[in-house]
Amino acid sequence: MQETPVFRLPSIKHLSILSNRFSLSQVLNDYGFQLETLTILARERFEGEFWSEFWSYLPNLLNLDIQYLALSAIHAVPHAHPLQQLCVHSLPCTGQQVDMIRHILEKCPRVPDLRISDIMISDSMKELISPLADKNNAVITTSTIPVAPNPPKHRRPRTRRPGTPIWITILFVISLPFLAMAYLIYELIAWLYGLVKGSWGLCLSTFRRRQGGSRTDSTVGNV
Q1: Where are the domains of the chain?
Q2: Which parts pass through the membrane (predicted)?
Q3: Among 69, 73, 166, 219, which has the highest number of CB atoms less than 10 A from its own CB?
Q4: What whole-number distance in Å separates Cα of residue 2 and Cα of residue 52?
Q5: How far is 152 from 110, CA to CA, in rounded Å?
């Protein structure tokens, strides 16, 4: 059976609990009365009689840094307790941070300095928190978790579709009148060629008829 380590500490005023490898209740039972600053970062179960009697272990505590779940497990701060500053961290990101802060103020109604760290909070929520702070005469300081920017989307490089260069299009437009004129000249030459060819054929046939007629006349004369 593993025994709980026993610590012999000198007179201390500031203590940070970073691990749950030893009994937190035993440490506070032995040294809690002289503590002025306490930070609890260990992952406890936050249940049992110890948490219900939490403030009785720390009669002179001035500054407390604690998780929200742990604060929910303990009773409200006694009226005559000298607690001056409370830092609450690890609020669940459920979208109900304003209700949680109201619950914290109900637990610690007379704490003048309330710090809430590592939460996601919007501007609209900050507007709702301010009246709560004024109502309880508390200064609420929020430390927001920085939001990492969205990584840039990797887009495939746009490939230019093969198309006709602009200078070819310009040359084509400029050459249209010349092409039309060349086509008209071609048609005119073809028409003239057909006309000349037809006239030449007509003249040739007329010449052949006349030549044939003269031969017939000479044959008849000889007979």
Answers
A1: 14-144, 165-211
A2: 165-184, 190-207
A3: 73
A4: 27
A5: 47
